[in-house]
Amino acid sequence: MCSFDVRRRDVRHPGSSGGAGERMVIVAPDYVGMGTEGDTPFLIGTGQAHSSLDALRAAYQLPDVTLADQAVVWGHSQGGHAALWTGLIAEDYAPDLAIEGVSAISPVTDPVSLVQSIEHSAVGSVLVSLGLTAYSNTYDDVPFDDTIRPGAHVMIREAAERCVPSSALLASIIAGTGGDSILAEDVGGSGFGDRLRENTPSAEMPFPLLVAGGEADEVISIAITESWVADQCAAGFDDLDFRVYPGFGHLSVLEVPSALPEELIIWTEERFSGEPGLSTC
Fold first, then answer.
1. Burial class (CB in 10 A: 0-12, 13-18, 19+), 42
2. Which residue ranges form the domains of the chain, and what is each CATH number?
């Protein structure tokens, strides 16, 4: 839904300048509903994954462009959730594509826990509203008006229409909610929560997976990611490399002096060269 060029013009894809990244072509898809007809699948796993895989297929059809057969999936935040789901369905949905690995940076791994951790903040209310709008448009058993607590409907619908909320809107959300959740009931026991669980990804994919995040992530707590990684390792999905970067936040983990950008390029080059992935399980 939101993109770096809207919020921060100094945040770049790790492969956008210099070094090995110059030999890579980055395919950065929008999702359905972003300038096209249809509902945007915000945190809806298969919808995001279909857009990603369809975009890669389209890239191979570009005239006068020669691309290698291999591809590696990258994603950050919502895009990290999309990357995980892309890895999960790639073999079934797009067996014609040669996916060699998936990298999910600061990803949404547990949507229910994420909602519970952010729903009392103004920015969190905006993110929850984006998710709820997408889910109510997709699932008949997640009615928007019944899921939002009385009195919050107008401001939350306004928030859901914006990628970057204004300071005035954030102030009105704080004043209107008093720090309370915008949801009418605990998400864990609601129809919204049930659908969020359906869209919780796993690490069950046939190629190496890199999951990484900043220890000081202020949007998606690293504790949520650590818990998910532990569950995936315990389930036997051990082709998983998990890295935490001390002192870096949700966006700053992508920027120098974070070691992540350079390490991601190296990790990607290793996938293209056929090297086995590292397991930290």
1. buried
2. 4-110+202-272 (3.40.50.1820), 112-197 (no CATH)
